Structure formats: C-alpha cells, structure tokens
Queue: 2 jobs
Job 1
Amino acid sequence: MPAKKRPLLERMARARKLKRIRTERKVTKSRHEGIRVLRNISAIRRFRQEAKGKAVTRLGFGKEENRAFEHVAGLMRKSGLSVRTDAFGNLYGRLEGKSSKVVMVGSHLDSVRRGGAFDGVYGVTAALEALNNIKATGNPAHPIDLVVWRCEESARFNKAMLGSNAALGKLTAEDLIRTDANGVTLRKALEQNGLTYKPGQQLINPQNVLLYIEPHVEQGDILARAKRKRIGIVTRIAGPERYELTFKSHSAHSGATPMGRRHRKDANVAASKATVKTRNLALRANHISRILGPTVSQAVHKGPIVGTVTQMRTVQGSLNTIPGMVRTTLDVRALSTHQRGKLAKRIITGVRKAALKEGVSLDVKELSRSPPVSMSAKNVTLLERVCKENGIVHRKMPSGAGHDASNLQKAGIPSAMFFVPSEGGFAHNPHERTHIKDLGAGVVLLTKFLHGVAKVSPVN
Ligand SMILES: [Zn+2]
C-alpha cells in the first residue's frame, strides 16, 4: 500500500471508530431513558381491574383510570410542572414558557378490556421523560403541555377519543347519553367524577396550539418484523367506516329440523360466511393494489386496506335453537375514502348474496364514517431530520388505528405521531411489550423534536 494513502485510510478508520463510540454512547443513554419509562409503565400497570396476570382493564372514568390519573398528576408535580384538569377531566402538566402559543404532547391512560400495559401509557411516560430532559437543559420559549386525554378507547361508551373530542368542543348532547354495559350514561359518569362538561363546550383553543405530537406503540407488527426499523413516523391515519349487519331468517328447533337448506335458514351460517367473505374481499383489494401498482389515489395514500367482522351476537338464541337473528359489526379502513368506500360496497354486496343463498336476509345500518387524516408534512420532515441526526433507524408509515392526533389535526392543529415497535405485534392484548432500547429511542426523538419546536434556550 502506498505510504501516501495510509494516513487517509487511518483517518477514515478513526472516524468510523469515533462514530461507533458516539452511537454506542447515545444507545447507552437512550437505554437509561428506556429503563425509566419502563419503570413508570410498570407502576401505572397496578391500576387495573385484574388482581393478577398480565391483562390490564382500565376503562374511561372508572376508578382505575382515576387512580392512574392521580398517579401521573403526582409525577408531573414532582417534575415541577404546573398541573390542572379541564371540565372533562383531561389532565395537563405544563412546562412554562413565555410565548402564548403552546406545544402539546400526550396520549391516554385508559385501556380496552383485558388489554396491555403499553398502549397510551407509553406516550404519557415518554413525554414525561422528555419534559424532564428539557427542564434539565434549558427554558422553552413556547410552554409545553403534557396532556393526558380521558377515555380514548371505545371500550366503555362505544365511541373512541372522548377526551380530545370534548376538548375540541365536538361532543354532542347525544354523546352524553351514550351508555356503558351497565346502563350508566356518559353524563352520569362525568357527574360521579365531579366534572361539569357541557355538550359543545370547547376546552382548548386550537389557535393557541402551535402543534401536537403523540408517541405510541405500533399496533401491528410492521416495525417488529423489520430487520432494522426502530421508529415509525406516521404520515397518515386511516379512518374507519362502520356498519351494523343484521342477518334475519326464522328460528327453528336444532334437533327436529333436517339439515337441508330447504329446511334450515341459519342466520349464524350466513354471518359466518360474511366473516370469511369480508376477509377474502379485503385480501383481494390488497392484492389488486399490489399487482396494478399505484393508481393516482394510491400513490398519494399507499397503505393498508382492511375489512373485519368485529362482533357477532346471536339475538334471542338458545342452546337448541337454529339462530333466526344474528347481529354483527363490520369495520372497513383504508387511507383513502374512495378505496374504503369501494371495498365496503363490495363486501356488503357479497355478504348479501351469500346470505340469500342460505335463505337469510340482510339489514345494513351505517354506524359511523370518519375521514382518513394526513399528519402535518412539516412535522414529518422534522421528525425524519431528528432521526437522521441522532442515528435513529426509522421509516415513514401509515397508521391503520385511530388516535387523538387525527382529531387535533382535523381541528387545524399541525399534528404528528411516531410509533415504537410492539414485540410480536401485540396490541389490545395482555402480551403488549416494547424493548427497552426502543422505549428509549422514542424518548430521545421526542426530546430533540420538542427541543427544536419549543425553542429551548440553555439555562445560564
Ligand atoms: Zn392508544
């Protein structure tokens, strides 16, 4: 090797070594942060209906959610944040700044029935850790609010994201008379908690919010399956279109009625066919979009197209009766309303045809329809830049699940979201788990992002 070249090669090797050391230092630091976040998640896990095991049931406005809120309020105070709650019980911990425009970061603490410990709680605990980091290094020009939304899951009142909807003045009088499984209305639940929210009351002014960011565990297995993808930067959140499907025929005796289709009109068979048909048609829609390549709408909204029969209930059934009425719900999602509508129409037509073959009729009632929402492009770019600068492996991806961030973006607040991987892709499941290094990487990303947008100046 020519002597002249050696110094250059040596320099390159040295630069590589230094880079490796710097990355390792960053990884070690983020590991400590991951450990602290995990400790807080474990502490919050205690507030659940279950006495043992891994499952977490913490429904909105239940005593477990209240205790989790009190616990987090305590952590906020300990971190020196100014703590307050609004008329719907949403909790805010503020790191003060001089500007009138506030930066918001947050998520939720409630869970589905028998869910896991990380959904929602990660966003809250990661934000707390990031605020501690910022407080230790400087003063933000923009105040930063850590917001904990009430009742994000639809598990109790069959409607999701109640807290952020309420804060934005989007809850109606009809919403307040929604009931839970025990017949308790949302209004009653609010009263029981001493909360005075009135329908349409706006609790935050979007004009005063500079931006909102929500860290969350991914609720699928895309990041967990990827070889080197640690963070998912959310570009767009899919919106669901939901229907209630009622299969009707007539009940008959399960012992006395012969098996032939001439004799039996089994609503359960029709509903079961609907489940399979929905799966197959959704699979085909994905397949077609892959073969044909991006059409104009898919080029903009490339992402999941999914259809699921989510609940199935035999109405007035008994052990020895061929069901005469079965009720199911259908949930269809895509990143464009056009794709979603096309799939929903296909499913309903196919399901009706299959039911008629069984001598069963189908009633369809639309339950809800919310538009897909794109996250703020500026925030996506900024998150990407922070990832690159800090050696955080990342990818851009859509979210098939709904989140409060879509509500805030719809209200005109530039919003952002990022995911950390969920090991095994578990979500709404007691086995939810995220690796410590991923929990920590999210904190590093969030800290640097907030540092930039809230304009933190160093303490003298
Ligand atoms: Zn969640």
Note: The first helix runs from residue 6 to 45.
Job 2
Amino acid sequence: MWVTTHVLSGLALAALLSAAGWPWWAILLVVVLAHVLMDLVPHWDYTVSRHPLAFSVVDFLASLLLFLAVWLALDWPFWLALMGLVSGSPDWDVVVAELRGGDARKVFPSHWKSFPHGRSGPVWGIGVQVAIMAASVVAVLAAGP
Ligand SMILES: [Zn+2]
C-alpha cells in the first residue's frame, strides 16, 4: 500500500491504543504488524504505474507532512506522532530495492516475492486505500491526545 495509507493507519492505531493505555513498545509492534496485514489487502500500488518516481515523491512528502501535522499542529507527543512514520517506514525497503534495480531483494517480510501481497486494479485498489485513510483521519481526530 501507499506510504500515506500506512502512516495514517499507524497514526489511527497509535491514537486508539494510546487512549486505551497501551505502552509505547506494544503500539510500536502493532503499527509494524499492521503494515504486514495491510499489504495482504488487495490494493493498487503506483510501482506498476508509468510514473512511479513522481508518485513516490508525493507519497513520501505527504507522509512527512502528516507526521508534522499531528506532531506540531495537533500537538501530539513526538513519540506518538512518530508511530505513523514507523508504520510506513518498511516501504523504504521498496525505495532502496528500486534504486538498486527493479528485481533487487527486499528485506521486509510483506515485500518478499513469496509473500501473498494483495494486488488489484485501480478502482478497488485506490478506493480501499481512500476508505482506510478516511477512517484513520476520523480515528486520529476522535481518539488523539
Ligand atoms: Zn509495504
């Protein structure tokens, strides 16, 4: 999935679990595990598009802006805001592999060739990510500190 989708869902999980009193280390484990589970859901990745570099620059910048927005504008504690970036961070694996050449080996389990990575066409594949992002924004605003 897109980094932005992972970052927003990571922020939502962090908000919900932190409000429920979970410790930071358990939240960290959950947001990384969420990355693996979300990569199972059929989705559309821009790595198959004609402009993967442009999409990825926008995606990474949007992710950074979301982190800054919850940290500085919503005044979340730094560690809690960071959980969004932590959830998206395994996708650096994809960037590094692309830079090394399209078929380079990836490190994160849900990026391995043997992993049943979810794929779909753009209509479902973008729609499901927009739905996850919308639900995540609601959770961030409702449950955030
Ligand atoms: Zn991923």
Note: The two ends are 27 Å apart (CA to CA).
